[in-house]
Amino acid sequence: MGRAASAAARKIHGRPHQFLGIEKNPRAAAIAELVLWIGYLRWHLKTKGEQPPEPILREFKNIEHRDAVLKHDGVDSKGNYVRPRPPEWPESEYIVGNPPFIGGKDVRAQLGDFDAQALWKAHPQMNDSADFVMYWWDHAAELLTRKDTPLRRFGLVTTNSITQVFQRRTLERHLSAKAPVSIIYAIADHPWTKVTSDSAAVRIAMTVAEAGKWGGKLLDVVAEDGLDSDEPRIAFREGAGAINSDLTIGVDVTQAKGLKSNVGMCSPGMKLHGSGFIVTPSEAEHLGLGKREDLEKHIRLYRNGRDLTGTSRDSMVIDLFGIEANDVRQRFPEIYQHLSQTVKTQREEQARTSSTNDAKAYAKNWWVFGKPRQELRPALTGLSRYIATVETAKHRIFQFLDAEILPDNMLVCIASDSAADLGILSCRFHVTWALRAGGWLGMGNDPRYSKSRCFDPFPFPAATDKQRSEIARIAEALDKHRKDVQARHSGITLTGMYNVLEKVKAGEELDADGKLIFDDALILILKELHEELDAAVAAAYGWPADLPEDEVLARLVAMNKERAAEEARGFVRWLRPEYQIPRFGSETERKQLDLGQPEERAAVAGKVAKPSFPSDPVDSGCRRPRGPRPAR
To answer: Per-residue DSSP letters for 151-209?
Structure first.
């Protein structure tokens, strides 16, 4: 401590009774109070250098032993909490906290059915899928904006998933309220130092909020080292300005709205809820594949994220969607017995220990996937291939999968066989959008592709047929190049290819393994294909290919706003009109789709409710509107 700081500290008269707290665990509450006294006494001796007044330790009872987010009036005969509600917190000027890190999907499992139900009932404004820490953020923000509140600021340590959709909604609600709060300090992604053998794998976020409309300071970690030591080294890049709900400064992509043009086109893959569905090819043969008639329609190739970015397991999956249990027993008895011994027993046990409607439904329909994705299946019907990307992955890579492959829940699927759509999704503009809109997640702190934030609001370019043809040509070449490399060199993964590509683009030196991949995967060709694709898509948008990232985001957000306005006037730029219009279109559009050949239908549809043409297509981020494309 320097002389000036030491002199200032001597003027501070703080005592433990000024530090209030709530702790549910009685042992932790006692420890917290003891730590307060230890900290106070160390500060007193260091700054004042004299014996503290006696009695040295006093019983202030300022650490309350109770629940911080749930209060109730007891439990009824069925075990339900009576009148669950948010508790009051002690009046204070500042709130600082490090709430429990429990993901939204794990709240019920961690807290138990009755506590989870009571929590959600006590906080109806919260989304049930929000992480547990967000209940602290929400309550602190509510206290911050109360009339005559003594609270000046609050600061919380949360998981770095605070930038994900379900957490972000809590922040958005308070940042845009009539009595708003502002984030005045934030670190969106910070390592949790010296806590595990691999500290870099645990990532947190920090936010400080104040009532009113204020600018803030945003710190981005640019380098980190020595995380498991007593002297970690972390370097930051500092930015200033209004901090958005996704903990960014500048263009607020969270304001983009989902577009009708993209509806029904994107979905996660199958969520099995039972490992017994997955079988090896030899197990599939033992269960009747090749012997039982029509079983080949129900034991299909299966791919998850690791299969796509790493080395494929060549797994298969038993898919009995649309078949009743009695039919399964009669037609595929080996399959019936296998699933009875594996999936059925797992689901019945889960139903006994969980009162959720999902658990009951899974147990009742035990031979079918937990989430068979009824909305995705018709979208893929009739396609020979579709586009997929891994939900959480280091590199945002889109690729074609054969229609025979059933996708796992951790794959995000786009129901299009169009190489032009693959190219647009693979271009720099969309990847930049996805990285900003999707946020980061997982032990590797990897970018996450969210259907609702990355795909649904994304405005595809209103490309001409010639432009789409050029984009498709390059995208086909890109997809073929990667698949050919992996066919020749089974040890090269997509992650390995793109690790080397990123190093080449950054001008970094390659190690021996990197040089081998550089040669075998023909990385310079991969680089050229991406550059050509970026230029072709930029031409379709009518923008320069070398736009800075912030300008790309600004134009895409502006285009999203224009497209939403078009759709409100009745003009929708459907991605697959022949599939989407019968299901999601207006009555007028459905009637027009029934007229003539595809080319004629597109021409007719293009005459309906067109928006006015903007005076400057580049500045507005929009090219001349046209009707739906012909069926491909």
So the answer is: --EEEEEEEGGGGSHHHHHHHHHHHTSSS-EEEEEEEEEEE-TTSSTTGGG-EEEEEEE
Looking up tokens 């645990």 gives: 202
Q: Strand pairing partners for 447? A: 440
Contact yes or no for 77/110 (Cβ under 8 A): no
Instruction: Yes or no: say if 15 and 40 are a contact pair by the CB < 8 Å rule.
Output: yes
Least confident of 239-253, 402-416, 606-620: 606-620
Three-class SS of residue 236? strand
User: Which helix (H) or strand (E) segment is 482 a member of?
Assistant: helix 465-488
Residue with token string 């329609």 = 297
Cβ(567)–Cβ(580) below 8 Å:
no
Q: Which of 66, 91, 119 is the last residue of a domain?
A: 66
For residues 208 and 13, which has the higher predicted lDDT (pLDDT)? Answer: 208
387 in a domain, yes or no? no
**Residue count (the chain):** 632
Burial class of residue 80 (count of CB atoms within 10 Å of its CB; 0-12, 13-18, 19+):
middle
Task: Express each pLDDT in 26-37 by its tens digit.
Answer: 999 999 888 988
- Of 201-210, 430-439, 474-483, the one with minimum mean pLDDT is 201-210
Nearest to 261 by CA among 455, 393, 522: 455
Classify residue 332: in a domain, yes or no.
Answer: yes
Q: How many Å apart are CA 377 and CA 579, to the nearest integer? A: 12
Apex CA 456: angle with CA 455 and CA 459, to 5°? 80
621 within some domain: no
179: its two tokens: 């009595």
What's the rounded Cα separation, in Å, for the pair 347 and 278? Answer: 16
State the first-to-last Cα distance of the chain, in angstroms, to the nearest integer: 71
Q: Are residues 246 and 277 in the same domain?
A: no
Same domain for 192 and 94, yes or no, is yes
- Kindly state the tokens that stand for 438: 């999707």
Domain of residue 44, residue span? 1-66
Question: Would the pTM count as exceeding 0.90?
Answer: no
Domain-ending residue, one of 66, 99, 123? 66
Q: Does any domain span residue 542? A: no
